Amino acid sequence: MGARCVIFDIGGVLEITPATGWTEQWEKRLGLPPGAVDERLGEVWAAGEIGAVGEDEVRGRISGALGLDAVQVDAFLADLWEEYLGSANAELISYVRGLRSRCTLGILSNSFVGARELEEKLYHFGDLVQEVVYSHEIGVRKPEARAFTVACSRLGVAPESCLFVDDLAVNVEAAQALGMRGLLFEDNARTVAGIEDHLTGRT
Q1: CATH number of the domain that residue 170 is part of
Q2: pLDDT 10s digits, 158-200
Q3: Alpha-carbon distance 154 to 132, whole Å?
Q4: Mind telling me which Pfam families this protein's record contains (predicted)?
Q5: What are phi and psi of 45, to 5 degrees?
């Protein structure tokens, strides 16, 4: 095995992202049935995750699907990003910051158009790791195999040297299928222990 590498997911790992109920609030405000926002915007969400639409098109499609004016679209997107961005998992981020001298570090995140600019402004992930790989920029999302191979290629590492940390089992399993080690995020203590095992060769 070559130099060790750790790759992190963002939402639910480096960011704490509890549900805020914002779509339900908009449905009540607009007099829509439960689930209507995601039903009407499902194609937009999917396209935005792989960069098939730009931010202006997202705004236009939200406006058309929900009958919102420009001010309302701004408010709708503000609520979306409030949940999406969550808050920093400060304890884990502090630990990761101390790993730079010990291994190669990367991020692989399913994302939405506009995420890089907002997350960089809030959390400075570009200073935390060597490469931040977003699904909306590479045109493919986890758990598809190519998302992981792109991340490894950009980091210049072999999959078998990498530990991948994610809060979704399907993504961890996809990484393992490519020869990476996988660690399901449950809490900071177990995550740190798993990373230390990987870096010291105990696993």
Answers
A1: 3.40.50.1000
A2: 999 999 999 999 999 999 999 999 999 999 999 999 999 999 9
A3: 9
A4: Hydrolase
A5: -60, -45
Are the C-beta atoms of 10 and 165 separated by less than 8 Å? no
Cis peptide before 143 (omega within 30 of 0): yes
First to last CA, the chain: 12
Same domain, 64 and 141: no
List, in order, residues 6 or more apart from 180 with CB less than 8 Å away. 7, 148, 152, 159, 160, 162, 163, 164
Q: Are residues 101 and 189 in the same domain?
A: yes
Give the pTM: 0.95
Q: Is residue 103 a contact partner of residue 199, using CB atoms and an 8 Å limit? A: yes
How far apart are alpha carbons 66 and 51 in whole angstroms? 22
Q: Which domain holds residue 103?
A: 5-17+87-199
Asked if residue 182 lies in contact with residue 6, where contact means CB atoms within 8 angstroms, the answer is no
Last-in-domain residue among 85, 102, 135 = 85
Measured CA to CA, the distance from residue 81 to residue 67 in angstroms comes to 20
